């Protein structure tokens, strides 16, 4: 193995471990909540967080993705860009809050327990804006350990909140308030981090006058990244929320424990393609598209193989662990998890193709593909062939992943001018 390959492998391993630390905290927190809250309360909390997570990308409005692309083009983020970005993030966060309140009131009722929990958890959405900005800045200055820190920080507070609120007090409200306080503290820290590493003083930001025309330019440039995040979150979180709305919090709780495991398995493709290779793909797309395709093919093969092995291991081992840890409490989750993990290798492959699409600036085609996947998922749940809750929800996830992968490959092949992006030896 060459020195460059060894260095790349070490960097990827560090990213996986750093992101795995955050995901491990999430998983541990989910285990505490599932253990000490009843299934309905756990499902209620999970579905409330799910709708906020789906809307949270509106809060950041794709600013993080825009900054990352500017960095890949060697364009420095100027004070007027920072000011416009922060103001857009603030305005979009307020819009996201209003939409969340509207959905909670319309689907659950203004005085329902579900709506009250959503109201308490509203600060969580502001966290997404600051997280996206901090992650993009950390990537641009190659401080990959800070990427892991950005991912882990909110989950440490949530773990403490879950331990105290659910583990010690068995209180859904205490847990929710702890989540809200954590979100506020982390938001303040991440915004100060962004201003520090972007190399701009607060005084410069305040003094800079930004024209409405420039605001529109930043808003227009960041919109594709915002939609990309919304659809990405929707593919994971919408089933949890719709399970609560259509089938009740009990089934939402059963599915939520499966989602916690699924997100743990998504770490490898997210770390490799979303954090490490995406900036590399951006640079290669500017002058070496043949090299881009070759790197995609090689990295995708390895990552999909690893994901498949992990999925098989989870399908065999984890249902037994769930049955041993929870007894019959989450029996449905244990029964359907082996089917759900089929989504892991599919998501790994689609994440690789999606990174290529972002690199070659095919955001429109990528968004259309993701929208098709979301429609497939929602349609599978709302118009099921069966009224059995868990089979419908699990089937919707797998159907969405298949739809997404096929659509991605079609778009990427057309964009790069080849018959198949996976089989291509060159891209003309």
Automatic annotation (TrEMBL):
Transmembrane regions listed in the UniProt entry: 12-32, 44-63, 84-105, 111-134, 155-173, 179-200, 221-242, 254-278, 299-319, 339-360, 367-386, 392-411
UniProt KW keywords: Cell membrane, Membrane, Transmembrane, Transmembrane helix
Keyword Transmembrane included in the entry's annotation: yes
Pfam families: Polysacc_synt
A Gene Ontology term for the protein's cellular component: plasma membrane
Acyltransferase in keyword set: no
Topology with respect to the bilayer: Multi-pass membrane protein
Protein name per the record: Oligosaccharide flippase family protein
């Amino acid at each position: 193995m060459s020195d460059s390959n060894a260095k790349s492998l070490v960097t990827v391993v560090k990213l996986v471990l750093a992101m795995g630390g955050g995901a491990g905290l999430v998983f541990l927190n989910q285990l505490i909540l599932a253990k000490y809250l009843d299934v309905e309360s756990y499902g209620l909390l999970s579905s409330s967080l799910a709708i906020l997570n789906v809307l949270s990308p509106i809060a950041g409005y794709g600013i993080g993705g825009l900054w990352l692309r500017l960095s890949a083009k060697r364009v420095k983020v100027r004070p007027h860009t920072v000011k416009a970005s922060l103001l857009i993030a603030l305005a979009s966060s307020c819009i996201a809050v209003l939409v969340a309140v509207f959905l909670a009131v319309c689907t659950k009722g203004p005085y329902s327990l579900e709506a009250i929990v959503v109201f308490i958890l509203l600060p969580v959405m502001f966290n997404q804006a600051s997280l996206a900005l901090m992650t993009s800045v950390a990537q641009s200055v190659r401080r990959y350990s800070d990427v892991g820190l950005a991912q882990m920080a909110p989950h440490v507070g949530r773990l403490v909140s879950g331990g105290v609120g659910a583990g010690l007090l068995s209180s859904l409200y205490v847990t929710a308030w702890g989540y809200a306080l954590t979100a506020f503290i982390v938001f303040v820290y991440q915004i100060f981090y962004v201003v520090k590493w972007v190399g701009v003083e607060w005084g410069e930001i305040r003094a800079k006058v930004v024209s409405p025309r420039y605001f529109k330019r930043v808003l227009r440039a960041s919109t594709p990244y915002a939609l990309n995040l919304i659809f990405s979150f929707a593919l994971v979180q919408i089933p949890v929320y719709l399970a609560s709305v259509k089938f009740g919090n009990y089934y939402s709780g059963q599915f939520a424990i499966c989602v916690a495991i699924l997100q743990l398995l998504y770490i490898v493709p997210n770390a490799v393609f979303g954090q490490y290779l995406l900036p590399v793909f951006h640079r290669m797309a500017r002058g070496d598209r043949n090299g881009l395709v070759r790197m995609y093919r090689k990295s995708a093969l390895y990552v999909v193989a690893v994901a498949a092995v992990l999925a098989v291991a989870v399908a065999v081992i984890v249902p037994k662990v769930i049955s041993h840890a929870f007894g019959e409490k989450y029996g449905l989750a244990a029964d359907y998890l082996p089917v759900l993990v089929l989504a892991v290798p599919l998501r790994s492959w689609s994440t690789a193709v999606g990174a290529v699409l972002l690199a070659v600036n095919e955001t429109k085609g990528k968004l259309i593909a993701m929208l098709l996947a979301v429609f497939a998922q929602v349609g599978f749940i709302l118009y099921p062939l069966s009224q059995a809750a868990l089979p419908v929800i699990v089937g919707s996830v797998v159907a969405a992943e298949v739809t997404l992968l096929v659509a991605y490959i079609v778009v990427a092949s057309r964009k790069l001018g080849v018959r198949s992006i996976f089989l291509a030896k060159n891209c003309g």
